[in-house]
Amino acid sequence: MVNKEGNNYYFEYRATLRIFGEGLDHEAITATLGLDPTHTHKQGDMVSRRSTYENDMWSYTAPLERIQPLEEHIQDLWERVKDHKAYLLELKKNYTVDVFCGYRSDSSTAGFDVSYTCLEMFTELQIPFGVSIIVDGNELEEALVKARKRQKRIKYKR
């Protein structure tokens, strides 16, 4: 796809296994899963100058190029952790275990598909499938202006 400046739109994807709560043992999770986390923090660590993290967290992001489709990120992550399903389900008894899926683009009209074959992880770990969607740039602003105009016209027609 090409935007009005003649440049290609960009699309980025990622999938991250996240485990958070109070009293996480980062080392035990790392050792059991056999994965070095891509991020960890402890409750009380500084997020910014004015705030701190409310919980401990251990997370691992699939190490794929962000331009690869979301389902590839999900499949890669599942391949790395599925042998530890029982451990992850056990962790869920005391902590939150989820998978953060992200999609980012500068196109306000694009979308993505996720094959049913890559949703096994969500079913097996009994976690919801959700995607954080971020649309960057002027396209979004223009789309919002058009949507507001349409909304006003609809209100006046009633």
Written description of the protein model:
- With 158 residues, this protein is of the alpha+beta class.
- 33% of the residues lie in helices and 22% in strands.
- It contains 5 helices and 5 strands, in the order βαββααβαβα.
- Strands 2-3-1-4-5 form a 5-stranded mixed β-sheet.
- Strand 4, helix 4 and strand 5 form a beta-alpha-beta unit.
- The chain starts with 10 loop residues before the first strand and ends with a helix.
Distance between the termini: 37 Å
How many helices?
5
Helix-strand topology string: EHEEHHEHEH
Biggest β-sheet description: 5 strands, mixed
Structural class: alpha+beta
Rg over C-alpha atoms, rounded to the nearest angstrom: 19 Å
Mean pLDDT figure: 85
Low-confidence runs of at least 5 consecutive residues: none
